[in-house]
Amino acid sequence: SQKIEQNSEALNIQEGKTATLTCNYTNYSPAYLQWYRQDPGRGPVFLLLIRENEKEKRKERLKVTFDTTLKQSLFHITASQPADSATYLCALHKFYFGSGTKLNVKP
Amino acid sequence: ETGVTQTPRHLVMGMTNKKSLKCEQHLGHNAMYWYKQSAKKPLELMFVYNFKEQTENNSVPSRFSPECPNSSHLFLHLHTLQPEDSALYLCASSQDLREGNEQFFGPGTRLTVL
Q1: Cβ-based contacts under 8 A for chains A and B
Q2: Rounded to an integer, what distance in angstroms lies between the CA atom of residue B111 and that of residue A49?
């Protein structure tokens, strides 16, 4: 079965820097990959979807890359702000989620 | 507000109790989902309904019983739960099951089983 790995350790960065989060998966490459944001006490909120034939996708300060050779997706937040502090989840296909990486942006 | 509501937000129950979780979506979607989220674990898919028909049961114990009376409502009936069932239960919906449709999540029900 598919296994999804996200760094379980929190990522601490300074405001204004670029945050980079990693999502690795095993086995077969999915047709698409999604990223979600989850705040404490709330359900995940969809951010971006990238398909296997897309190398990169952007939305405002967010950028996602998808490397099917490395079986990896990178999620970047440029010019990070304290309000970006949350847990970020990657999801393969429709139902398979990683455990998420907590991002802390310090002012 | 995501358009998906869940009640109650918090629930404490004994192992012999029977309770139900309710989910309602106001987005006109046709697919609805139940997930379980335990601390430091990935979201675990439990059930999927599409046009009121169950399409996925991810080997969930029978003490969890879903019900989907219409495309807008989803219930999760609980009975004789175990302490390890304590978790955040999330409901989600999407337009349908086609590839790439984003899911909209509710705020979840925090369940504690004593």
Answers
A1: 54
A2: 31
Q: Which amino acid is at B40?
A: K
What does the pLDDT look like over B30-85, one tens digit per residue? 999 999 999 878 999 999 999 999 998 888 999 999 999 999 999 999 999 999 99
Question: B83: which DSSP letter?
Answer: G
**Which of B9, B34, B43 to mutate to test binding with chain A, by most A CBs within 10 Å of its CB?**
B43
Interface residue of A95, A97, A99, A102 to substitute, partner B, most B CBs within 10 Å? A95
CB contact under 8 A, B56 and A95: yes
